[in-house]
Here is the input.
Amino acid sequence: MLESHLNHPLSQHEQRVLALAGVMQAVRLVDHIARKGMCDAEDFQVCINSIFAEPKGILSMYGNINALKTGLHVTHQILGGHKTQQAKPMLSYAAGLMALDKKLSKQPETLAILAAHMNRIHRQVDYFGSATHENIISSIAHAYGESISTMQPRIIVRGKTDFLSQAHHTQKVRALLLSGLRAAHQWHQLGGSHLHLLFRRKQLAHASQTLMHLEITPQETLNSDR
Here is the structure.
């Protein structure tokens, strides 16, 4: 086991890996809902809460590294070359979110529609007291449908019809995709690109493994690469 370095500051590369872990955690939950009709409640809450966090930094969105342990594990497994049955669909969802984020930045009208919905949903969260209340999830899904779903290429989630035909499952899927999209935006903001995923897989896998054994507070970050 790797040693835990409590005072280890985050480099920009490590922040990118955490953003990628945010994407992968969201798409893993999407995959589980689509195939099994369920997902980890704690990981789901982490992803949904991140939608409403102020984006002052990747850790400010998730609170701490422990919140992204699942995403880091998935990142390490997939990019490290470990054979997992669901690697292909999860990578497809992740790539789709990253492509949509790139396009969204060039579509101010769609951004404005999404922002208007989210401003209203923020007030709903204050009323219901929980970002994961079923009414909030329904509203997030509606916001996604009115904005992101109008863009091409659309993300096609594959799974069992029995699950994907149920409204509460599809609403959770759309809410998670919005969470993943926000993490994808942070990935790009931190300098992440498609080339990193093609040519720096080993470095990303190694960093994700290292980060799984760290506990860093949001203040302990560096803005530049070490």
In short: Residues 29 and 41 are 10 Å apart (CA to CA). Residues 12-211 form a domain with the YcfC-like fold (CATH 1.10.3890.10). Confidence is low (pLDDT under 50) at residues 1-6, 217-226. The chain has one domain: 12-211.
